[in-house]
Known about the structure:
Helices cover 20% and strands 34% of the residues. The chain has helices at 2-5, 11-33, 78-85; strands at residues 55-65, 68-75, 89-96, 100-104, 117-118, 124-128, 133-137, 144-145, 147-153, 166-172. The protein has an eight-stranded antiparallel beta barrel with strand order 1-2-9-6-7-4-3-10. The protein starts with a helix and ends with a strand.
Amino acid sequence: MLVKWFPLKGKSCQKRMLILLLALELSLSASACRADNRMPTSASSQTPTEVSIQPANSMKIDIKVRDQVITATLIDSKTTQDFVALLPLTLTLEDYASTEKISNLPKRLSTEDAPPGSDPSVGDLAYYAPWGNLAIYYRDFGYSNGLAILGKIDGGIEVLNVPGSVDVTIERIQ
């Protein structure tokens, strides 16, 4: 078939092509048989910056805003575990860029298994490592370096879509 695409003149050129093809096949076969080329059984365990989007044993938190309570489901990560260790928390969430409510946390959280950044969407609860603050997005926003998603508001995010600051209490649901 290669002879059709690449017409070779003379038997010596055809022999060279055949030798090159055999050498290539031998090389590919040998590398395929090496033990260190086998695919891992769990690709996700080989990727250190991948964040599980699975709930942390269905860990949920309540966020009390004025006379309403909204619930969030947290993901399983070291950043989230550090956040949960701070609960209960009473914070004043300040409006930032008419997109999110933010507040400084009493201590910085681990970002050991966090991705380099995230692209938050409406309802995301996140930790912004460069400033050490909690962010709750009530409007869509673009990718941000240093942003680690902690979880997602299950419903009622519109309670935060108000001008100015709001006082909240965040507690783990037992």
